[in-house]
Write a structure and sequence with these properties.
By secondary structure, the chain is mostly helical. The protein is built from 18 helices and 2 strands. The protein has a single domain, classed as MFS general substrate transporter like domains (Growth Hormone, Chain: A, Up-down Bundle), CATH 1.20.1250.20. Strands 1-2 form a two-stranded parallel sheet.
Length: 393
């Protein structure tokens, strides 16, 4: 068994690889599934609605977290294995379905695969809280998001190519095999279980969320991720319906966002450990507002690629810093639950904004939708101003 407690390199690799599996699922839903449904003649509003529905398990981290904390004496690793088994099984089964004729079971299986990946996510977050410190928490978050975004980039480029050449059903089968390979590593990692006693989860959660700082961060979390939801849902569709690009072209340009998300995550993780959480957030969010609004001037693939890459860099930075901030104020005794609430609410903002993006684009047009994506950062910055961060003793 491999120990990670005193080995930063192994920490980064473990959590980066677990988030890599999550990134594959992001690519499956936001890129492959969107293109697959459009290929089958599903309308834009229904396509973004379905993508939002299958992502609902990411909003339910407040459900998965207490389950993991309730069985804290067994550690975090067993839930990673169980969640992975569910995801792999559902991805395998969905590869045999045609959404053109079996849209409901197709949607249900992808939904359940995200339930499994949700358990991986919450368990990995709680494990990271258990083994991280203030000095490496930003870098651990950087490695996690870099892993997620790298997988998203690979999937964004690879999945549309495979789908256009061999059929999209084959994409889901390959995704199942890739996640299965990733889950082999946690089997050989030794987890030192630190929580031996079952916690009084409800009372601890109530106590934590009575504090002003925790409440403000809970309000900040959905606001800061709404832009990412709008961008990740609408841009692949914009490339197809607005610029008239092919699936293969869309895949390679869609890869630009997660590539720069990964770079931005690593930079954000290092920067925030040096200059603090709020300063880093002001920088990354401010630049992202300008870049997102600049999308209204895009009328060609190369302009989109440049601006999309810049958005990805700044988005990766503020996502990493935000999650490091969530970890800073999370009580390790209820790590899975409290951090799961923060990130679950964040995903309500991300996924909720994404779900209505198709309807916004049809009603208002792509340009105004991009302006709304920039505007949503305003309330986030206002709440951030009032957050006062104190280190947990």
């Amino acid at each position: 068994m491999v120990g990670i407690e005193n080995n930063r390199g192994m920490k980064y690799f473990l959590f980066g690889s677990l988030y890599f599996s999550e990134g594959l699922m992001v690519a499956i839903t936001t890129v492959a599934t969107s293109l697959y449904l459009r290929e089958k003649g599903v309308s834009i509003p229904i396509t973004t609605l379905i993508v939002g529905i299958v992502n609902i398990p990411w909003m339910l981290k407040f459900v998965w977290g207490p389950v993991i904390d309730f069985f804290i004496k067994f550690g975090r690793k067993p839930f990673i294995i169980l969640g992975g088994a569910l995801t792999v099984s559902c991805m395998f089964l969905v590869s045999f379905l045609d959404p053109g004729t079996s849209l409901l079971p197709f949607t249900l299986l992808i939904f359940l695969s995200h339930v499994g990946i949700g358990f991986i996510d919450v368990s990995a977050d709680a494990w990271a809280i258990d083994v991280s410190t203030d000095k490496d928490r930003g870098k651990i978050n950087g490695s996690m998001f870099a892993g997620q975004y790298s997988a998203w980039a690979i999937g964004a480029a690879l999945f549309p190519y495979i789908g256009s050449q061999y059929g999209y059903h084959f994409v889901y089968l390959i995704n199942a095999l890739l996640i299965l390979l990733i889950l082999l590593f946690p089997f050989v990692v030794k987890e030192i279980v630190k929580g031996k006693v079952k916690e009084k989860i409800a009372s601890l959660v109530v106590k934590e969320f009575k504090t002003k700082t925790v409440l403000l961060i809970a309000l900040f979390s959905p606001l800061v991720f709404m832009n990412e939801g709008i961008m990740s849902f609408i841009v692949p569709i914009y490339m197809r319906d607005g610029l008239g690009l092919s699936d293969v072209q869309i895949g390679f340009i869609a890869m630009v966002l997660p590539v720069f998300l990964a770079i931005g995550s690593l930079v954000g993780g290092v920067l925030t450990d040096r200059i603090g959480r709020k300063s880093a957030l002001y920088l990354f969010i401010g630049f992202n507002i300008v870049c997102t609004a600049s999308l209204i001037f895009v009328d060609s693939w190369w302009k989109l690629s440049i601006i999309y890459g810049m958005i990805g860099f700044f988005m990766g930075g503020h996502s990493t810093v935000s999650c490091a901030l969530f970890m800073d104020v999370t009580n390790p005794r209820i790590g899975a639950t409290q951090y799961g609430i923060f990130t679950g609410i964040a995903n309500v903002g991300l996924n909720g904004a994404g779900m209505i993006t198709g309807s916004l684009a049809v009603t208002l047009g792509f340009a105004r939708t991009f302006l709304y994506a920039a505007w949503v950062f305003g309330p986030a910055l206002l709440v951030l101003y009032f957050i006062r961060i104190k280190k947990r003793p």
